[in-house]
Amino acid sequence: MYERLSGAIVYRDHESVTVDIHGVGYHVYCANPFAYEINESATVNVFIYTHIIQDAIKLFGFKSREERVLFSRLLQVSGIGPKGALAVLAEGNSKVVIQAIEEENEAMLTKFPGIGKKTARQMILDLKGKLDFVMDEEQLMATGPLFAKESDALDEAMDALRALGYGEREIKKAEKALQGNDLTADEYVRQALRLFVER
Predict the structure, then answer these.
(1) Dihedral sign for Cα atoms in the order 152, 156, 162, 165
(2) What's the farthest any 2 CA atoms get from each other in the chain?
(3) pTM
(4) Cβ contacts of residue 89 below 8 Å, gap of 6+?
(5) Taking a C-beta distance cutoff of 8 angstroms, is the pair 35, 92 a contact?
(6) pLDDT by residue (tens digit) across 12-56?
(7) What is the 3-state secondary structure (H, E, C) of the chain?
(8) Positive or negative CA dihedral for 73, 77, 81, 85?
(9) Predicted confidence (pLDDT) per residue in 133-142, tens digit
């Protein structure tokens, strides 16, 4: 199947982007779509994981091959589906996830939506010692400017958190804490996820 798509980002919502390649638009689900800038004249690389189920084929996109590998490893854990794996990767710092697994930090892992104690323990049992690749953090964090107004960017970020499975109570707290900052939607999502993890 697809290993990588190289094209322009022509559309973005709270859970996906559309990659246009020679007039064909590929619908790609992402951990944080706001990490991609809508720009029809710029070409970007999106590394693809193809998820096939009984009645659908879905494409999931990542900033690097290493991030895609971690996503695929997470899917091998009982109790974690694509939505849960994306929620774990949404902050964009996969090293934090790997460190939590290696240190058997269940409390850290259960802060992600949909990850309970049983699933966190399963993650540790299944993945500890098997994530021996280094994430290209600079590549994962590299994003272009997004041209949304502050209120629009904050609203988009809160919608993205809903798509990842976070509850309204957590989202409202994050929204209140982040108001007044001049950030892009991508940065709001990252900051909110950091607030969730630190609690």
Answers:
(1) negative
(2) 47
(3) 0.69
(4) 31, 62, 67, 70, 71, 74, 97
(5) yes
(6) 999 999 999 999 999 999 999 999 999 999 999 999 999 988 888
(7) CCCEEEEEEEEECCCEEEEEECCEEEEEEECCHHHCCCEEEEEEEEEEEEEEECCEEEEEEECCHHHHHHHHHHHCCCCCCHHHHHHHHCCCCHHHHHHHHHCCCHHHHCCCCCCCHHHHHHHHHHHCCCCCCCCCHHHHHCCCCCCCCHHHHHHHHHHHHHHCCCCHHHHHHHHHHHCCCCCCHHHHHHHHHHHHHHC
(8) negative
(9) 544 443 434 4
Tell me the residue type at 40: E
What length does the chain have?
199
User: What's the token pair of residue 61?
Assistant: 């996109």
To which residue do tokens 């630190």 refer?
Answer: 198
